Amino acid sequence: MDFQELLKKKAEPHRYQARLDALAGKIDTASIQATVEAAAGNLNSGKRSFVIYGEPQSGKTEMMVCLTARLLDEGRDVIVVLVNDSVRLLRQNLRRFRESGLNPAPKSHDEVLDASIDVGSGKWVVFCKKNKDDLPKLIEKLAKVAQKVVIDDEADYASPNAKVNDGERTKINELVDELLGSDGAYIGVTATPARLSLNKTFDNDAASWVLFKPHSSYRGQDYFFPVSAKAPSFRLNVLRDDKPENLRDALLSFLVSTAILNLEGSTANYSMLIHTSGKRVDHSEDYKQVLATLEILQKPETHAEAEAYYQRLAEIANERYPGRSDAVQEYVLQNIGQAAVTVINSDPGKKFAANDDSASPSAKFTFIIGGNIVSRGVTFDNLLSMFFTRGVKGRMQQDTYIQRARMFGARDEALVDNFELSIPEKLYRDWQTCFVLHKLSLESIKSGNPSPVWVESDSVRVTSSSSVNSDVWASRGEMSFDLFDYNDDVQAIVDSSLEGLAKVERLAELLGEKAFPAYLVTFMKRFRRSGDGSIAVHRSKEVRFKDADIANIRRAKGFIGQSDLEPNRFRSAIHHIKIYFNPAGRARVFYKYNGTEGIRFQLELAEEKTAPPSGLTTSAVVPHGDSSGSAANAASVN
Q: How far apart are CA 69 and CA 23, in angstroms?
C-alpha cells in the first residue's frame, strides 16, 4: 500500500464503531449509543460543561469507554478521566478501559509524567485520581495542551466546591478547574447529580444534561426498593434487633445460597458484602467474627459449636430448598476451605487477606468488609448477599445512601432470585425513601426542566448543605406550577368519576406541561402502592386566605393543610392534587406528597437570583444551611 494511503487509514474514524462491534451480541448498546450521541452533540454545539447521569452500577463505565472512543474519532486529542482518590478504583477503571482495546491504550497519570513523553502530539487517554498530589503534576504536564476533555467519574464526589458560600474553593474543585483551563470541556458522570446542580459545579448546564438509561438486564431501585404493596422479589431479611447472631446467620445463609447455585451447575465464585460502619475498628471486629465462624465450619472436629452451626445450615436450607439440606451441609463441609476475607478501609499497615481482588471474587466464598470505599464506584461481580446495618445519626444524606446500593447492576435471574439483603427495618424504609424522593427529582430533569427540582424531607436531605449554593430556592411541603385559566373543562375533569391516575392524566393533557408537568404524572404513576387509591384529586377551591397573594395564588404557609387531604375520603392516598383559583379565574395546580413527613423541594436558579423561576411557587428563601425541619421553618416557607 502507498505510504500516504496508509496514513489516511490511520486518520479514518474507527474506534467507536470498533467498540460497538465488539459489544454486539454481548450487551444491548442502544442506551450507550443514545448517550454518546447526545454528549457528542453537546460538545459539537459548544457546550462546555454538562452532566451525564444514570442509576448506580448501570454500565456507565462502558458508556465512558464508548464516549472516549467517539471523542477521539472526532478529533479530540487528550481525554482525561478523573476517578475518586482510591488506588483500587483507579486500577479497576483503568483495567476496564484497557481491556476494551481502546487505541491509544489509556495511561495512568504517572505513566506520562516523564519529561521525554510529549503529550502535545498524538492522542492520549490519561487517568488520574482526584487528590491534591496527583492533579498538580498532571496539570503541569498538560499545561500547553488545548481543548482537553475531562470526564469526571463519580463527579459529585470531591469535585463540587464545598465552600461555595464562603468566598473560597475546596482544593479539588480548584485543581479540576485549573486542569480544564480556559478552553477545556467538562463532562460529569454520576448516579447522584443533585450536588452538581445545587452547587452549580463548573457552571454545568442543566438544560444539556444527558440521561443514561439502564440496559435490559439491569436491576436497580425498582427491583430492590419496590413501592408496590407486594413483597420484594429477592430475599429481604429484616433484622428486628442488634444481635451478633444476625451476622452469623446472614453468613450461613450466604453459604447455603452459594452451595445451591453450585449444586445446580454453577461454577462461579460468589461474594458477600458486610457494611456495618465507617469506622475501621468496627471493620476489624466484623473481620474477627467472620473468621471465627469460618474457623468453626472448617474445623468441626475441634469446635463444640460446629454441630449447632451445621444444624443451622440445614434449617436455613430446608426453609428455602426443602429436601436439599444434606447436600448443602456436605457441599459446605467439603468446600468451606475455599473462603477468602477482604477488609477495605482497614488500618493502612495491616494486612487482613492475600486476596485483594474482591470486586471479582477469585474464591468460592468471598467476604468483603468495609465502609466508604465500598460505598461508591466499586462494582462487585456475583454479589449474592449484603449485610447492611450502617445507619446514620440525624438526617440520611440521599446522594450518599443511593451510592451505597452496591447490589444494583447487571444481575441474571439466578443471581437476583437468590440475593439476600439483611437490614434493619427502619434503615430499609429510610433507604427506600431516598430513592422515592430521588425518583421525583430525576423526573423533573427528564422533562427538560432547565432548573431541576430536588426533593428532600425531614429525615432525608439531598446533599451536604455546605455544597448548596446560597441562591438556591427551597419550598416546603408543596409543589406548584404555572398559572392557567380555570374554566368549565377543568372543573368537569375534577368533578368526574374518573379514577385517580386517569383523572390526573386528563388534567395534565388539558393544562399542558407548564401548568401540570409530565414528570409529576410519571412519578405518581410509578409510585402507587394502593393502585388508584394512592392518588387523590381534591375538589377545587377559591383562594380566600387573608395572608395569601390572591392575584398570584401564593402563600408563605402553603395552601394544603391536613383537613384538605381529606383522610377519611382518601384513606390510602399519598399523592394529593388540588387546584386553587382566584376571583379573576386564574388557577394553579398544587401537589403534595404525603408518603413521608416534611417534604421540601429545592432547585437552582437558571439566571435570576431575585425571584423563583416559573414552575415553582414559593414565598421565601430558605438559607442553604437551614435544613432543620423545625416548626418555625415549616410555618414560614411554602
A: 13
Nearest alpha carbon to residue 190 among 380, 82, 60, 32: 60
| Pairing state between β 541-542 and 575-581 | parallel
Q: Parallel, antiparallel, or unpaired: how do β-strands 365-369 and 149-153 relate?
A: unpaired
Tell whether pTM > 0.85: no
**CA-based nearest residue to 368, from 377, 378, 627, 230:** 378
Q: Which of 139-148, 303-312, 517-526 has the lowest mean pLDDT?
A: 517-526
What are 493's three cell numbers? 375533569
**SS3 of residue 584 by DSSP:** coil
In 3D space, the residue among 359, 387, 363 whose CA is nearest the CA of residue 282 turns out to be 387
pLDDT band for 373, please (50, 70, 90 cuts): low
Q: Which of 378, 432, 367, 361 is nearest to 596 (CA)?
A: 432
Q: Which residues of 198-223 are buried (b: 16+ CB within 10 A; e: fewer)?
A: bbbbbebebebbbbbbbbeebbbbeb
3-state secondary structure (DSSP) of residue 115: coil
Q: How confident is the model at residue 449 (pLDDT cuts 50, 70, 90)?
A: low
Predicted confidence band of residue 357 (pLDDT cuts 50, 70, 90): low
Q: Helices 518-526 & 425-446, crossing angle to 10 degrees? A: 150
DSSP state of 532: G
Q: Which of 192, 190, 83 is nearest to 464 (CA)?
A: 192
CA–CA dist 82, 271 (Å, integer): 28
